[in-house]
Amino acid sequence: MLWCSIFLPALPLEVYARGSDDDTTQPFAVGSGGSRPQIVAANAAARTGGVKRGQAVAGALALVPGLALRDRDPKAETRALESIATFTLSFTSAASLVPPSAVLAEIGGSLKFFGGLDRLLAAMKRGIEARGHAPRLAVAPSPLAALVFARTQRSEPVLESRALAPALKDAPLAALGLDSRVLETLAAAGVRTIGAAEALPRDGLARRFGPGLVEALDRAHARIPDPRAPYAPPPSFETKLALPAPAHDAAALGFAAHRLAQDLAAWLLARGLGVQAAELALVHEPWQRARVGRPATVLALAFASPARAIGHLATVMHERLARTALPAPVETLALATRSTAPLAGAPLGLLPGDEADAPLVPLVDRLRARLGDTAVVSYATRADHRPERAQVETTDATHAGTDPPATPGAPRPLWLLPEPVPIGDALAAAPWALCDGPERIESGWWDGGDVRRDYCVAQTPQGARAWIFRHHARGTDDGDWWLHGWFA
After folding, report:
1. Tens digit of pLDDT for each residue in 161-204?
2. Residues 470, 328 within the same domain
3. Any domain includes 182
4. What count of other Cβ atoms lies within 10 Å of the Cβ of residue 170?
């Protein structure tokens, strides 16, 4: 087996920063919260001003008066880890969470499929960076060794178990994730590296520190199994994305919406689904809600058919945001699916550029997102032989994904009139030529809408093709012709 560790050292900062495309010119930091808050992470602009990790928040504000500060959000960090694990499932079938800041993926069985280790790692890193994260990737035959290498910034992969001992020799013991009291005791004795701990008598280590230390050393060196709980995406998608600063214009939310589209697309791919309906909630600032009692602004997203491409999802969200007036500044975006359907994966392309995620957005989705759900009308078929009842007008996009009932082999017009109209006067002025028919339609006795008609295709003197019929009552032709539709 071969494991890849994805370590995110700046995750507390990235869960906020990934919601904006603004450069790092604005000093921004994340604090621990509580009665004595400390700086957990800071961006480059804040660090340039002297802000450091572990520094008191009051001291950081004194150094950089314009520092934008947010409290650490462990739930958002967990959602980010789950999103990255879901993304890695497009490269492997086994991914595991390592809270609070790492994801493990078993990639040994995927190397040939993606063209080798270098190409696989490059694709994974490129996809994670596109989601607003700065990952450290490391590869080793054991998951714990991969974590150690990622935490200690070792980028050179280790591919064989026998190469683990020399590679781990100089790594700090703290990279194993051991208890801080164990690390302090060993450091007092001068044991600070994995190699130094390996040189000590194992029985003595086990008696002094319990079996956990020895087991960690053995798991890191692949001497014993190191099973990891596999991660499975939830059955429904629901996530949030906090912004580094409140947004006053809906147009400024487009970048954050694109990030959410990336997360949704990865979840849909992992589940083999396409989205038909979703909701994008714009959560306003808490003080605004408390002051005026204003709830979140909820935007309904509808798709004519199951969709999964990032470009498609992002375009629909951008169009909806473009025609939304914000009643108050927005601090968080929340996206949740409301209706999904199975969607098969696309075949792999053979030509350069085939793998690109082109935003092929159906016109109906663009119009519905730009003009409103009621501005676009579609038709859903029903199992009824009566033409006027065989289709129903709807604005619900979910009907587009249903399989229509079988249609008859006889011709049907593109344009069906709302109500049949008599054409006796037109026939008296100039005869129409019958081209096809008759087709008998007799149905509806069970609901009071009984019809008995013979339909024909006719051509008018001007050359137009029409769908006409005559009523029959008790088997006797009444002689009157009615127009019911026009052919293209």
Report:
1. 999 999 999 999 999 999 999 999 999 999 999 999 999 999 99
2. no
3. no
4. 12
Residue 261 and residue 334 in one domain: yes
Within 13 Å, how many C-alpha atoms sit on residue 231's CB side? Answer: 26
Same structural domain for residues 310 and 451? no
pLDDT at residue 347, rounded to an integer: 56
Residue 304 lies in a domain: yes
Q: How far apart are CA 433 and CA 459, in angstroms?
A: 5
Q: Which of 58, 34, 63 is nearest to 47 (CA)?
A: 63
Same domain (yes/no): 129, 243: no
Q: Count CB-CB contacts under 10 A for residue 151.
A: 21
DSSP bridge partners of 334:
240, 281
Q: What is residue 401's predicted lDDT score, i.e. its pLDDT?
A: 44
Write down the pLDDT at residue 94. 93
Query: What's the pLDDT at 89?
Result: 96
The residue with tokens 């006889």 is: 410
265 and 318 in a common domain = yes
Residue 33 near residue 171, CB atoms below 8 Å: no
Does the pTM surpass 0.90? The reply is no
In a domain, 322, yes or no: yes
Domain hosting residue 78, numbered range = 3-158
To 5 degrees, how large is the angle CA 277–CA 280–CA 283?
A: 155
Same domain as 268, residue 337: yes
Q: Which residue has the tokens 């075949």?
A: 347
Predicted local confidence at residue 289, as pLDDT: 47
Statement to judge: residues 147 and 243 lie in one domain = no
Q: Is residue 244 part of a domain?
A: yes
Say how many C-beta atoms besides its own lie within 10 A of residue 466's C-beta. Answer: 22
30-45: per-residue pLDDT in tens? 999 888 999 999 999 9
Which residues in the chain show pLDDT less than 70?
22-24, 286-294, 345-361, 372-379, 393-409, 473-478
Query: What pLDDT score does 33 carry?
Result: 87
Question: Cβ contacts of residue 487 below 8 Å, gap of 6+?
Answer: 411, 413, 414, 415, 457, 464, 465, 466, 467
Query: What is residue 404's predicted lDDT score, i.e. its pLDDT?
Result: 52
What domain count does the chain have? 3
